[in-house]
Amino acid sequence: MTKPPVWHTAHPLWMCGMRPFFLLAMGAAIGLLAWWSLVLAAGLPAPAVAGGAVVWHVHELVFGFSLAAVAGFALTAIPEFTGQGGATRSQLRALVGLWLLGRAGFWGSGLVGTAALGLAALAHLGLLAGLAAVLARPLWGAPAGRRHVAFWWALLALAGAVAGFYADALRGLPGLRWLHLALGVLMLLIVVAMSRISMRIVNRAIELATPGAPPYLARPPRRHLATLCIALYTGAEFVQPGTPLAGWLALAAAAALCNLMSDWHVGRALLRRAPLMLYAVYACMALGYALLGLAQLGAGGSTGAGRHLLTMGAAGLNIFVVVFIAGRAHCGLPPDTSRWIPLAAALLLLATAVRAGAAWVGGGAPWLGAAGALWCAAFVVLLWRIGPALWRPRADGQQGCEGP
Question: For the whole model, what pTM was predicted?
Fold first, then answer.
């Protein structure tokens, strides 16, 4: 039989929520960072958007790249966690349409003005409201879902950040404070999501490395302390940015994350590829908040170094690992044991180190260009290894999002 066209709901792309959104996330990671690197390193003009080039860059990393990954993860993981149904193919196609409409509206805001901004605001809010509505039944309607309602509240918090950003943008303000707030919510989402997926991944690694060893446990008190400190810092930075209070709370968040990382010290199993990559996510997050705190306390450097460790390191690497692991598992594929993914993850971490170093010491165009090239190379490898599987029918002949 002839494969239906991609816009038809019978196409394999619409089989599972992760498929279109993970492809969009990888495409955004490559295209947006390549363009931004050329803006910084070669003077290429940035899109004329409301708020200017920096706002465009941060907005698209948070509400473009990261939001696509969050949508793909939530639409796949929440139904799996709760045993309930997820989005229908038609609903998924509508959600993807809203994500694309948000890109078109914001990118056209410099040319069209208020009308394009209003369109972008409605598209982003519609996407988040649609996600919340689709996930409401598995989260609130099933007893197993109540343990995961933090995802639902995080989506509402992101909707609040979107509303605040566009309220500022429509008044001619840059709205960066709202984008930083959304970044804090994203860090909270990472901590919550990691506590769920790490139990399976780390314990599988323990079984392979040291059979019979005590299992890994994602201890709630340590996780709750980390989320509390991140939330307090995010609120302080929003209300009183650049103050000693924000600086001390950032250092508290870094310390709480280091405390959380101690759960992961399980011996040789930690050195296996999947646990080690996830562990590096927390390391980037802890170092990012530490550098933010030092900068805001006047101990040297700029907040840009810490912020890039959170965006490129913590968020970028977390999305990279989740796309790869969940993408293969829910496409009916066995784990990829080649060296390509660890190599790509190393390139991503190197890109983060180069970009954060450039922000800390004031590195110029060569640093910025190198960081962007390394980041794009990492996601090109990821797209090569998992992209075709997200487009084709499942390798095991099944339908939907079922894992192995």
Answer: 0.95
